[in-house]
Specification:
mainly alpha
């Protein structure tokens, strides 16, 4: 079937040329800008349901950044990208299924947490970092959440006291050897054993 001639054909051809020009420009920009390639790869990997929210957050943040750049000299305040920012938060909207948290799994998880706590406490620099981070975290949660954490810490302290009380009496430690005597003074006669 022959295509009709007229303005409709010209409009279609012109639209096709526009689409091809846009596609060509996009391919060129992708080849020149590796960050655009990464952005598109992340977008394609993103669950489809998340896209409206994530794109909305990015749009809002970029707009805020442009506004900040335009006023930073006047207000003496600037914004910058946060390399540690998170776009996903953990949500606990459904009650926990007790079948998923049986006693053995919980015991193993607690043993691991206690071993990590030993690393936190005794590796230089990590303990101070932990204290600063946990203090900062307290500013990001409400009082009800702090109260829950406090209650759990009381549970941990009670478990520690119970475990200590249940242990057999500790065997007395070996006596510590006394420090060696100083060498005899040359003016004193040697001692006989």
């Amino acid at each position: 079937m022959a295509q009709r001639s007229g303005s409709g054909g010209k409009d279609s051809f012109g639209s096709l040329q526009d689409v091809l020009e846009v596609a060509s420009e996009l391919v060129r920009r992708m080849q020149e800008d590796p960050f655009l390639q990464r952005l598109l790869a992340v977008f394609n990997a993103m669950p489809a349901d998340d896209r409206p929210t994530i794109v909305g957050v990015l749009e809002r943040e970029v707009l805020g950044r442009h506004l900040s750049r335009g006023t930073e000299k006047v207000v003496g305040q600037s914004s910058r990208p946060n390399p540690h920012a998170r776009l996903y938060i953990r949500a606990h909207e459904t009650p926990a299924d007790s079948v998923q948290f049986d006693f053995e799994q919980m015991r193993v998880a607690n043993v691991r947490a206690l071993r990590v706590a030993t690393i936190i406490r005794y590796v230089p620099g990590i303990h101070d970092l932990f204290k600063r981070a946990i203090r900062a975290a307290m500013d990001e949660v409400d009082e009800a959440t702090r109260a829950v954490a406090e209650g759990l810490l009381h549970d941990v302290l009670a478990a520690i006291a119970d475990a200590r009380a249940a242990e057999p009496a500790a065997v007395p430690a070996e006596p510590v050897e006394a420090a060696p005597e100083a060498p005899p003074d040359a003016s004193e006669p040697p001692r006989r054993s």
